[in-house]
Q: What sequence folds into this?
């Protein structure tokens, strides 16, 4: 054999060896499940520090996955929050800014992206987005969540990955799905931003029962994944949506309004029992899931993938997060625009129409599930109730809080010379 042929043969063998050594088996694309609560304050589960509310399934999920301590929505309202999650865009960019709003024509959504990637994608439970045509989910259960269609969806085609969004209606009012006797109102510890009145205690107990009802739904979802042998290759994300319909939570930009529980479980990929302080927002979820599914193209989203945080490769994501609020679309709400920016320690809130009083359902209606009007009635004899009523309805132009020393945002530092 000539030297030329020998060299050619050696080069061919070398190329083959390099190809074999560099070859990797195709990565199996994961399935995705999002379980989303409805009006659940971020503090209200065992793994987030509340040892009075019973949430064994949420706590188990955290023990098996990663718990985020700094996850946020941009708005504390149902419809904009969900459309933030499903579009990956800030509310003013997508169009889903007021309550019950719809996204602009041409805005792509999670079901569109996932279908383009070859996924089956379905929703079960609350929708609260518009227009429906822009969200081509397969609907396998209406409100309330009915689990009868889940197993068929999960096992329909083992060769095609899926994404399932489970949107509970708990613990949204009315607080009537849980057990009335599960919690003793007199034994509960009230947070410092709640006045201690009989009605407050009674309703907090019912709200906790509703949280426990939600927790059982989380357990059902996880049991079905195990039963269908899908748990090991499924990235499960639990989100608490925005805060409960109580003062200083839903419809506000305080942490009890926009801060969220966020727990991710993905066996073999996400470290069990991990906790991260990385700051993320709801619109980061879509690009994260898309990257995990293999789509790394630039889709011009406002959200940014935090897959490297889930993989334990980074412990930082955003340096600050933003909040935006309008009362437009809120029942009994007056026009009241609010803006906020927050890093891991400080929160700055700008109440643009601070000359006006703030109004919504809580301040105007004497409903069974609201206790603000009771606070007003006892304000003359209850100093904390008087303070809270005034703070909620009449706000300064600027509010600045040190959330490390003041997690319930009770001490406004905006006038402090030290913090100018």
A:
């Amino acid at each position: 054999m000539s030297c030329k042929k020998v060299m050619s043969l050696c080069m061919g063998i070398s190329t083959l060896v390099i190809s074999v050594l560099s070859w990797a088996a195709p990565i199996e694309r994961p399935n995705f499940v999002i379980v989303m609560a409805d009006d659940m304050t971020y503090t209200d589960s065992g793994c987030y520090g509340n040892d009075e509310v019973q949430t064994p399934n949420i706590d188990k999920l955290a023990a098996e996955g990663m718990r985020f301590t700094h996850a946020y929505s941009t708005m504390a309202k149902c419809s904009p929050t969900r459309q933030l999650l499903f579009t990956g865009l800030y509310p003013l960019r997508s169009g889903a800014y007021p309550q019950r709003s719809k996204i602009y024509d041409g805005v792509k959504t999670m079901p569109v992206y996932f279908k383009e990637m070859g996924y089956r994608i379905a929703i079960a439970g609350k929708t609260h987005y518009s227009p429906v045509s822009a969200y081509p989910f397969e609907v396998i259960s209406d409100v309330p969540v009915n689990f009868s269609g889940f197993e068929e969806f999960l096992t329909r085609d083992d060769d095609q990955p899926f994404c399932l969004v489970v949107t509970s209606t708990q613990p949204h009012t009315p607080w009537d799905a849980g057990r009335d006797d599960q919690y003793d109102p007199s034994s509960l510890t009230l947070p410092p931003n709640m006045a201690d009145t009989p009605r407050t205690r009674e309703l907090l107990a019912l709200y906790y029962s509703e949280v426990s009802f939600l927790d059982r739904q989380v357990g059902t979802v996880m049991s079905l994944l195990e039963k269908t042998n899908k748990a090991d290759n499924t990235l499960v994300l639990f989100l608490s949506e925005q805060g409960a319909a109580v003062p200083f939570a839903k419809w506000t930009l305080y942490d009890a309004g926009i801060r969220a529980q966020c727990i991710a479980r993905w066996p073999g990929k996400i470290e069990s029992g991990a906790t991260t302080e990385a700051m993320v927002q709801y619109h980061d979820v879509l690009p994260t899931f898309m990257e995990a599914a293999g789509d790394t193209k630039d889709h011009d989203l406002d959200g940014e993938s935090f897959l490297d945080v889930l993989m334990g490769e980074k412990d930082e994501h955003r340096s600050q997060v933003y909040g935006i609020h309008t009362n437009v679309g809120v029942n009994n709400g007056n026009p009241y625009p609010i803006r906020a920016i927050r890093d891991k320690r400080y929160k700055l809130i700008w109440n643009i129409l601070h000359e006006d009083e703030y109004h919504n359902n809580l301040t105007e209606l004497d409903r069974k599930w609201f206790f603000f009007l009771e606070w007003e009635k006892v304000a003359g004899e209850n100093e904390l109730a008087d303070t809270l009523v005034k703070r909620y309805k009449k706000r300064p132009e600027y509010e600045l809080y040190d959330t490390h020393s003041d997690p319930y945002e009770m001490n406004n530092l905006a006038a402090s010379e030290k913090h100018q």
Q: What stands out?
A: The first strand starts at residue 31 and ends at 36. The chain is about 30% helix and 15% strand.
